[in-house]
Amino acid sequence: MFAVIKTGGKQYRVVPDDVLEVGKIEGEVGSIIQLNEVLVVGGDTPVLGVPTVAGASVAVEVLDHKRGPKVIAFKKRRRKNSRRKRGYRDEITVLRISEILTDGAKPTKGPRPKKEKVVKEATTDEAAA
Prior knowledge:
Blueprint: E1 2-7, E2 10-14, E3 19-23, E4 32-35, E5 38-42, E6 47-48, E7 57-77, E8 82-101, H1 124-128
Antiparallel strand pairs: 1-2, 1-5, 3-8, 4-7, 5-6, 7-8
């Protein structure tokens, strides 16, 4: 099953367990939020929305908030000793699609548990050396 969602003025085709970067969305890291602007729900019988599919939503887990790559806007007017250099970085939210919901259903999956970092202990051979 797949869905086409709209967020931040852009459209994305998503399937469960996809990780994507979208424009900044409010939400705590590790929380589950719902995106309600679903344009298409696909599968055996695709459902097209007019303009959105009624009762459909996509549950996503917020993985991270970060900034995108720097974009430079440089303008130069030749022979006028005139130039302008400006740059900016977009605010980005990294999302993982947890499930695609239809008929007004609520999310059943919670956020995934974080993986613990394994600290490698020194063995007796390394400690003696």
